Amino acid sequence: MESTGSRLGLSLGIIALAAPIVALGLFIGTFAITAVEAARSNPLAGATFYTNPESTARVAAAAAAEADPDSADTFTLARLADQPAATWLVPERNPMDTVRSDVAGIADAAAAAGQLPVFVIYGIPDRDCGNFSSGGLSETDYPIWVESIATALDTRAAVVILEPDALALAQQCGNVPQRVAQIQQGVAALQGTLATVYLDAGHSDWLDAATTANLLNQAGVQNVRGFATNVSNYNDSAAEQAFGEAVSALTNGAHFIVDTSRNGVGSNGEWCNPTGRALGATPEATTDDGLRDANLWVKEPGESDGTCNNGPAAGEWWPERALELAAAAGW
């Protein structure tokens, strides 16, 4: 396994060799691109995001088509499954001995399709602090697991969202120093890879912008592309835009993405399987020069948040709720 240090050393060497060429290029009239312009450019611009054929939505749509191929519900589920959503990497499904090959296989399939995969790394120790999505790895195994993911992405492009809720929950869980250090480990492992990385920042109805920015700065947001908001939540895009801009202003202009999978009518204040919600904007990179890089479906819309409001276990497919979300969005 190639170490993070060797990746970083190689990158610094390439930068040093390229410096004279870059300096010459700056003099080439209208073709020159300044460092500031390069920093503003959206690395996700023009990307088509990957639709994983093994996603829960795809599996559910295939089962519906086999059972009742001509029903309206089957058509709706098929349309839902056609939307690209993130692949969540969890040690329960992607253990230490297979996670590298799992990631490489998905990333290679995405590249063959001309698409960009989105991964969520979700295996931090004491994950979710014993709530519906509890679990995670030991403090010894976690950095090794993340390093395996990083190694798979050394030569493969991807979007990575690092550890939903980990920083935002840290104060409540009483483990801020540990969580910050663990996210720092993830940042260090992923630096030098081809991944575009966003640290999870909670959402607009959780911690205030100043507290969120402080945690992100401690965790190393300056060493990645930026942060993600609204992951697995329901807040409307206007609220997340304002929150993202406020956090960005306190993190030296970090860019952000928004999970729009279930925010079509905003939030009613509940986070766990609330009724009356709707699908949001479909996944797409932004086309302007703003701070928001993309709308993504980080949470698969038809998956349960947990055993609340009559839902199945967290992460399990819930066809009735998937259809309700689609209907409320006018699908």
Gross morphology is globular
- Let me know the average pLDDT: 89
**Rg estimate, integer Å:** 20 Å
Structural class: alpha/beta
- Residue share in helix: 25-40%
Q: Which H/E pattern describes the elements?
A: HHHHEHEHEHHEHEHEEEH
Tally of helical runs: 11
How many domains? The number is 2
Pfam family, one: Glyco_hydro_6
GO biological process, one term: cellulose catabolic process
InterPro entries: Beta_cellobiohydrolase, Beta_cellobiohydrolase_sf, Glyco_hydro_6_CS
Keywords: Carbohydrate metabolism, Cellulose degradation, Disulfide bond, Glycosidase, Hydrolase, Membrane, Polysaccharide degradation, Signal, Transmembrane, Transmembrane helix
Structure description:
By secondary structure, the protein is of the alpha/beta class. It folds into two domains: about 1-40, no CATH class; about 45-330, TIM Barrel, CATH 3.20.20.40. It is built from eleven helices and eight strands. It has helices spanning about 5-25, 35-40, 55-65, 70-80, 100-110, 140-150, 170-175, 175-190, 210-220, 235-250, 320-330; strands at about 85-90, 120, 160, 195-200, 225-230, 255-260, 285, 290-295. The protein has an eight-stranded mixed β-sheet. α4 packs across α11 (about 320-330), α6 (about 140-150) packs parallel to α8 (about 175-190) and α9 (about 210-220) packs across α10. Residues about 1-40 have low confidence and may be disordered.
